[in-house]
Amino acid sequence: MSHSVAGEPPSTGRRAAPSTTAVYSAAEWDLLTSLPGQVIVAAAAPGPGRPRRGVAAGLAGLDAVAAGRAFDSDLVRAVVAAIYARHDGTPPPADRLTDLVDLLAACRAAVRVLGRRADPADSAAYRQWVQSVAARVCRAAPAGGAELPPAPVDRRFLDRLGGALGLG
Predict the structure, then answer these.
(1) Torsion angle of C-alpha atoms 123, 70, 96, 93, degrees rounded to 10
(2) Rounded to an integer, what distance in angstroms lies between the CA atom of residue 75 and that of residue 137?
(3) Beta carbons of 158 and 100 less than 8 angstroms apart
(4) For residues 109 and 101, what is the distance between their CA atoms, to the nearest angstrom?
(5) Which top-rank group of organisms is this from (predicted)?
(6) Where are the domains of the chain?
(7) Is 136:63 a contact under the CB 8 Å cutoff?
(8) C-beta of residue 68 within 8 angstroms of C-beta of residue 80
(9) Contacts (Cβ under 8 Å, ≥6 apart) of 146
(10) How far apart are CA 15 and CA 43, in angstroms?
(11) How do residues 96-132 score in pLDDT, each as one tens digit?
């Protein structure tokens, strides 16, 4: 019989959480698992000086999220597993962040959570992975062409995101 991290049986129909997730509160874990999707939305959003990205950008972002499965980080792999497990047919909450200011604040909050709870190597891997998700979206070419270098507005977005993630 499988047991949860706390030693109690998992709820019916749910697998026990990986031990990596045990140190995070539900709100902290939600922040860490929702941030990559929020980054995809923000990086793909059209705006002044930003090219219209379309479906190719979203697919590039999803591919970058999935690439986290191969990371040498228990935390990143657990976050990816949670993201894919979450897609059980229930709609996402309507209050997800899309505003850049709110996204950067969420990134800074995630950095604080990781600083308190994560192994330094896992923290660095998570932050670099989230940045790589944004970079893949910004480099996505319309209609599935070859990747493009980020436009100047995208480079500024990536720089601000990297700063908020403590990578700059």
Answers:
(1) -120
(2) 22
(3) no
(4) 12
(5) Bacteria
(6) 26-88+97-164
(7) yes
(8) yes
(9) none
(10) 32
(11) 545 889 999 999 999 999 999 999 999 999 999 999 9
**Angle, helix 152-164 to helix 26-44, in steps of 10 degrees:** 170
How wide is the angle at C-alpha 106 spanned by C-alphas 88 and 40, nearest 5°?
A: 55
- Using an 8 Å Cβ cutoff, are 31 and 113 in contact? yes
Residue position matching structure tokens 């591919």? 63
- pLDDT tens-digit profile of 89-106? 554 454 454 588 999 999
Residues in the chain: 168
The answer to whether 53 and 62 are in contact (CB under 8 A) is no
